[in-house]
What does this fold into?
Amino acid sequence: MITCTTWVPRGVAAQNPRRVEMDEKEFERISQLAKLQLEGAREELEGADTNKGGDGTDKKVEEDDAMEIEEMEKPVGKEEDDDDLREYNLEDYDAPTEEERQTAMGMFGNIKSLAYHEPGEDDPYITMDTADLDEEEREELQILPTDNLLLVGKVEDEVAHLEVYIYEDEHDNLYVHHDIMLPAIPLCLEWLDVPVDSTKPLTSEDRANVVAIGTTDPDIEIWDLDTVDSMFPNAILGAGNDEKAAKRKKKKKRKTPKPNDEYHVGAVQALVGNRQHRNLLASASADKTVKLWDLKTLKCAKSYSYHTGQVCALAWNPTESTTLLSGSYDRTVVWADMRTPDAKHPTWGVESDVEAVRWDPHDNNYFYVSTESGCVHFHDTRVVPATPAASKPVWTLQAHDKAVSSFDINPIIPGFLVTGSVDKTVKLWNTQASSGGPSMVVSRDMDVGKIFSASFAPDAEVGFRLAVAGSKGIVTVWDTSTNPGVRRVFGHRVKITNPEKVDRLVRSSANDHESSDDEGEGVGDDDEDQEEGGVRMKGGADGWESMDE
It folds into this structure.
């Protein structure tokens, strides 16, 4: 199952990613992180043992059961059996014979004549040039400036990990570059360009390529995407990176942790980095709080409690960079200025639990909200309701019959909206239709199961590319510009390259195709689908369904 995805812009990743190097400083850092994690695991294990013992009753029952089993397993007539079996000498049946001992000694009889080499000298029996091996490995790991990274949070066979895909648009290629093991199920990903391991003041020239990962654990992990084979994250935001917090956690290990101003105590369900104030990262949690983190100090700068339910969605305003939009299971959306936490903030209400929120990248006065009931609401921030119940959106779209688990607005093409749902379909919409509201352009079953993530590529060169992933554990990149309906509606807004190209889906490799989804059937089971070199071409003339049909 794939739970979340996010794109990385072109040209950001290092062309030659480095393998992790274990020096004394790195070893000390990892030792500290491992020590905190081991101590936490030990305390949990001791707590489990203590609970199992209880007031001593359970332990006594276990001792009585063990005595009964011992009595039942006590051998009958053991002396007679020993007399019958002694002649076969079963105790020494697998001991080597004298001939076998001599043969073994002969194997190492000429050990003095074996050649050995001092450290640093070349072994004459190794004929492969290490320089050639290094060059071959470097070529395998190389990332070109025209490549896009696609980060995928995945759970497979109860193991959680982050897969870093390379998408080569010119060659229709999508493959896993490397992966990172995670401690718990990933729920959200946020790409950041801020170095988090630097003690120097942050300047506008400082750049990095890292990802912040929120999971079902309360801690937020930050990993360097330009380093391969890392064992531990570059930084942890939360109690896992604070000895004092860990000690307090031990003292209250049997009690339900309470929300506080220093770290989350529930699953981290949303992350969003501030693109203007690059050292700020906002997080939303099941503990009903929103927290603001300083990536230079790795500490929580401020904690906010605007909602009465779990907070599941966040979005910074692109122009008013200190204001944050947050959506919650309490069926409200709050637009708050982080500088004035005690002020009264505009609040909008919706008909069911919020699933996701987005600002309109082409007009920052508007924002979108998707809900569990399958609706998408489009609001104007200049029209603030007196109460959440009095909210009046510009328009409301019943996009799906089930929850709209993910949606995105194309940052390159105005009016291009995609919605994905647990009903297994993706729909493309034109929000600038002549009717004044949104109109559907294409509806498609992507054969990825229940859809949990749908997002457009961030670069102009691949502005029509759409990444879709879901419960089957498959990630698919769809070149929507090759669809006749999309070309007809959006072709005049952005120039389309190769307009005659066949409708195509570029899917992840066959190894990632195995599904953990029980319901498993998709449109691919009924249609005549073909795959050629990673390009999946749907059966049918155009491979799409439009409103005209």
Summary: The helical segments are 24-53, 57-72, 78-85, 98-107, 130-141, 243-251, 484-490. The CA atoms of residues 433 and 538 lie 28 Å apart. Residues 512-549 have pLDDT under 50 and may be disordered. DSSP finds seven helices and 32 strands in the chain.
